[in-house]
Amino acid sequence: MRVLAMLDGTPADPLTPLIRVDDLGLTRGDGVFETILVVDGKPRELGPHLDRLANSAAMLGLPVPDRARWERCVQVVLDNWRGGGEMALKLIYTRGPEFGDGTPTGYAMGLPIGEKVLAARAAGVSAVLLERGYDPAIVARAPWLLLGAKSLSYAVNMAALRHAESMGAAEVIFTAADGSVLEGPTSTVVVASGRTLRTTPPSSGILRGTTQGALFRAAERAGWVTKVEPLTVRELKDAEGVFLASSVRKITRVHTLDGVALPETGALHKELTALYESEY
Length: 280
Fold this sequence. Notes:
single chain
């Protein structure tokens, strides 16, 4: 089950070729995207996702996304979805055809949640630490590296996940050249110690987490302390719980890191998941 809508609000057949072969999003990864969880017809954190889409577009020098058109496009997908209670909603925004008139390509697509994602939510994942290859100090002085933009150029992230699989793990936690913790290829890293939750700041060149943001809001209301600050690998390994937060996987616990079993976090994971769900 898939549902596709173009940016002008027109429904389209997702099995019919629609993208020009010279679209720069296809040939060069020159574009941005977002993935949003929809539950019972309601998109979660749509506003923050559209904010992040606009921020990524600005970093790439793309035309400012027309928010009203995107909201209308999203609604078309929601109105036509017949695939069950949950859906992954993808927003794609590219520079458009090479040598075109400058009009960007934009569309939204609804997809079912994969079985691997559902299994990871329940059972947790094993992860390995992999170097991302940059020092956070370079972020401010090298904007062309697009650190912190959710661009379509995800080849490195996918290669990292394949490398993890070759090592017998399912997930990756990237580290920086200075040894600090960054993010997962498709997730935000959250650690728990006592009644404190911590995550790495976007200034380190990572995406601002929408799911992590929802979790932190709920946790603060429940009396937790939340901190957005640099995190070392040692602190990661010493934490009472390590979690990956992402739109479609929600709050997923990491049970093994670099082949070493982490402390049991079943009860803690249940509590954090309940806090996150309380936002909706």
